[in-house]
Fold:
Amino acid sequence: MTVTISKLFDDHATASRAVAELESAGVPRSDISMVASNADNWYSESGDRGPNTPATTRVDRDGDGVDDRAEGAGAGAGIGAAIGGTAGLLAGLGLMAIPGIGPVVAAGWLAATAAGAITGAAAGGIIGALTQAGVSEEDAQVYAEGIRRGGTLVTARVQDNDRARLQGILDRSGVDIARRREAYRQSGWRGFDESSQPYTPDQVRRERQQYGQSSTGEERAGIIPVVEEELRVGKRDVNQGNVKVKSHVVETPVTEQVSLQQERVSVERRPVNRPLSGNDRAFHDRTIEVEQKGQEAVVSKEARVKEEVVVNKDVQQRTQKVSDTLRRTEVEIEDERTTANPRR
Structure:
């Protein structure tokens, strides 16, 4: 099964050496592709140097007198021309302009996909072109930004059982994509933006110097960063517990005594013997009705505020001594070179 391996390099010279190693390891030239920034004008269609253009060694492995990079770009352009007019023409010259990146030199099979990104044949621009080539979306964002900042992307189609060995060749001199992504993000980068302005030659030079590459693409022998920690003490709020004040209803039985009045109607019959008087109405129906009243206890309640509970917070300032250990890099130089010239 064929898989795609990719690696970002800070300059085209380092990438070219990696490509040569891939070819030496048995990867066919037709399966290797390169997309390189040309922001510093390292390459021209004729291979000649223009004003302020650094010297470029002609690559002519097949001995036909034509720069192999132009041939590779032309091969990609043949496919690109079928995709879209102007893009194919630019690729035929070995150069094309990608939105957000600027001028690039594209060679090999990926050139056709990159050309399609310009005309819209490849959805999503340069990111879509890279993902179509088998690159993850997350890595494609960093690769596109790396090319914009003067880098070169090498992509190869290899057999799955050779992936680890061939990826190791690229990893020896390529960019650690995870660290580079973190470095970009620490500088405020959030993702590749096609509307961004391409890098100028000065910006490309500073970018390469930042990551340990010279402006001509030569690797530095070694860099030891001298790092010193600084103590920064800040403050943060921490939860030290809560104070809860709850209220609930408590029922208490209450007993009171009250004096009540109770009427009682009594009927009494008593014997009498006297003559009928004028006030006595004899032989008439008569009804006497007396209302009997009594008292009962009536209970009512009135709620009154007897006490208030107020919850407040007091803020007090205190001084705390903070201690820690700071680290720094100490560099010791041992010069074991001899100053005397050996006699011949």
